[in-house]
User: Fold this.
Amino acid sequence: YRAGHKKVVIRLVFENLEDDEIDIINEIINNFHTFQELKDNNVILVELINILKETSESENINYVIEKSIKITKKILGTQGASILLKDEKSNELYFKVIDSEKSDKIKEIRIPIDKGIAGYTARTGIPLIVNDVSKFPEFYSNVDEKSGFITRSVLSAPIKPLGKIIGVIEAVNKIKGTNFNNRDLEILKTIGDIIGINIINSLLYQRLNNLSTNIIKSLISALEARDEYTKGHSLRVQIFSSKIARAMGLTPKEIKEIELSAILHDIGKIGIPDNILRKPDKLTNEEFEIIKKHPVIGYNILSSIEGLENILDGIKYHHERFDGKGYPDGLKGKDIPLIARIIAVADTLDAMTSDRPYRKGLPIEYALEEIKKCKNSQLDPEVVDAFLSSFTKPEELKIIL
Ligand SMILES: [Fe+2]
Assistant:
C-alpha cells in the first residue's frame, strides 16, 4: 500500500493444503508484491522522464522548477515540497518555489545558512532523511512558528550543478505518517540534479543572450554613428516587422527571428564608403550601384556566425521586389523569403516617412496610401494587408515614427 494508491486486501482461505501447494501460494503472493513494486517504480520513472523531457524543451526556468516541485510532491507522496536558493550576499536561503499549505507565509521567510535542515544541507552538501524533526537538534522551528505550518518529517538534498551548492530541494511531511526511506532520497537527489542542470543552463543561456544583444546593439550604433540619417531607422523597421509578423500569426520563434533580422537589415551599409553613405545630395547611378551592395555585404558579415542562419534571408533580400525588379538577385513573388517580404514593407514605410537631407519625410497618411499602391509591384499584397490590419488608426504609427 502506498500513498495515492488504492489499498487492496485479498483474503484467501485454503484448507488441507499439501506442502508443495503452500509453496505455490507463497510464490504467487511474492510475485504480487514484486509486481506492485515494479509498477510503483515504473510510475516514478515515467514522471522523471517527463520532467527531463519538459525541461529540455522549455526555456522558461521558473516553469521547469514549479513543475518539478509538483512532481516531487506527487512521487514522494508528501504534504509539501520546495526549492530554496542561496543568497550569497546575506548568507541566507530563500524560497524560490514552494508548494504546500501556508506557502504564502512561508515564502516570505528567510533561513540563515547556519540554521535548520535546509541550512545543514546547503552548507555541507549532505542530503538528510529526518523522519522526526523534534529529534533533530538543529531543526529551525522559526519557519513553523511564523507560518503556522507543522513540520513533522523532512527530506533534503543539495542542488549543486558543476559541484557548487546553489540551493536545496526539500520534501516535507510524508503523508499518512509513513517514513521517508533511502529510495525517496535517491528520487529527491535526482530531481535536485535535474533542477541544478536547468538553472545553470538558463543562466548560461541568459548570459549568451545578453552578449548577443549587446553585440547587435554595438553593430547598430557603429552603423548609426556613421550615418545619422539612419538613426532610429533600424529600430523602427524592427517594430513594424514585428507587428506584421504577429498580424500574420507567425510562431514566437519566427517572430524573434524576424525582429533580429529587421534590426540588422541595413548592417551591410557599414561597408559603404562615407562619401556615398553620407552624401547629402541625390546619388548618381554609379553611387547607387555601390549602395545596392549593402544587402550582400550584410549577409557576408553575418553568414559565418553560428545561430544566425534563419535571419540571413531577411538581410540579403530586403530590397527584392514582388514584381522581380529588385536586387540583388531579382527574385519574384513568393520566391522571395517571407522574412524579407515582411522587412521590405516595414523598410519602405519608414523610408517614406523619415526625413532625408534632400527631402522631407512624407506624412503618415500619405505614406500609407503609397504603400497600398505598391501592392503587387514592389510589395507582397498579403504582407501589406497584414501590416494595415495591425493597427486601427494612423495615430498608432505616429507614436513609433
Ligand atoms: Fe536596405
User: Anything to note?
Assistant: Residues 227-400 form a domain with the Hypothetical protein af1432 fold (CATH 1.10.3210.10). Residues 265-266, 294, 318-319 surround fe (ii) ion (CB under 6 Å).
